[in-house]
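Design job #97: recover the sequence.
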């Protein structure tokens, strides 16, 4: 594993859950208080502890665990990690709190939707009530030199939060996926996807004075004075239009996914770079957008 030094205060690493590279970035903000952004799935526990050590921190020195949302690839390992970090407190969206305290339904839903990938990620552990708090929109987490602000950014999931610093934003899946090699972002919109809220969240993120968009999938992307989010927004619109056309002509979700892959620039290459996850992820996004159109 390699530690990337993004700035004096921000390091990140490729979690490589179950050996899958270039899929999940874990960020650590180093300050008077130290925060880890995202935990990855349960199967990444050993690697995340290694990443914390590479950042020069002991488990006792992590103060905050800040997931963007609680899907298995983002916080499935949260309960496991908190048992290893005696002084850390987690913050989650109010709608996520009950599922973190009792992850049974989340686990069952994930197994139904993700199938064998859920088994690979591993089952989440419940978080003790004194280790996690719900975070309202606009809440500030004071790390000393830097304050991170919780920005509710529903769309991908109703309980999604982006973490906003001075010029850095940890975007989770609010902007979809970004492939550094292609420098293109694409939607990730599994059911229950809300397109109206997703675009509102994109606009909220676009209104910030941001230099870096820190994707979970995958890595830091230069914001380029709004150009990056503009690219993402137009890709969301293009996908929805293409999927609406599929619904209108009676195409099924798999056929629409095939058409997406041929019609959207660069998208076929994501199948190669992201391996096992990717085919299912794009199909899931098509299903999410179809449900939104049906509703
Ligand atoms: Zn994700």
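Job complete. Output follows.
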């Amino acid at each position: 594993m390699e530690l990337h030094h993004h700035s004096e205060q921000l390091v990140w690493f490729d979690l490589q859950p179950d050996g899958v590279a270039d899929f999940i970035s874990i960020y650590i903000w180093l300050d008077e208080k130290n925060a880890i952004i995202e935990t990855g799935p349960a199967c990444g526990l050993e690697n995340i502890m290694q990443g914390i050590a590479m950042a020069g921190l002991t488990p006792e020195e992590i103060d905050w665990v800040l997931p963007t949302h609680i899907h298995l690839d983002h916080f499935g390992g949260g309960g496991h990690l908190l048992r290893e970090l005696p002084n850390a407190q987690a913050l989650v969206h109010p709608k996520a709190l009950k599922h973190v305290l009792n992850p049974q339904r989340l686990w069952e839903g994930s197994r139904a939707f993700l199938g064998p990938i859920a088994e690979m990620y591993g089952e989440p552990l419940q978080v003790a009530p004194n280790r996690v708090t719900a975070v309202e929109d606009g809440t500030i987490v004071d790390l000393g030199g830097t304050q991170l602000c919780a920005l509710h950014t529903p769309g991908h999931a109703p309980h999604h939060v982006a973490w906003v610093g001075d010029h850095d934003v940890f975007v989770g899946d609010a902007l979809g996926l970004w492939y550094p090699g292609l420098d293109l972002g694409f939607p990730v919109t599994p059911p229950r996807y809300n397109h109206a809220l997703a675009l509102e969240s994109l606009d909220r993120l676009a209104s910030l004075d941001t230099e870096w968009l820190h994707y979970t999938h995958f890595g830091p992307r230069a914001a380029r004075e709004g150009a990056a989010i503009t690219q993402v927004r137009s890709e969301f619109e293009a996908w929805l239009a293409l999927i609406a056309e599929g619904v209108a002509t009676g195409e099924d979700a798999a056929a629409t996914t095939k058409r997406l892959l041929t019609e959207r620039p660069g998208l076929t290459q994501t199948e190669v770079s992201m391996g096992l996850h990717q085919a299912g992820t794009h199909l899931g996004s098509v299903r999410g957008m179809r449900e939104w159109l049906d509703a």
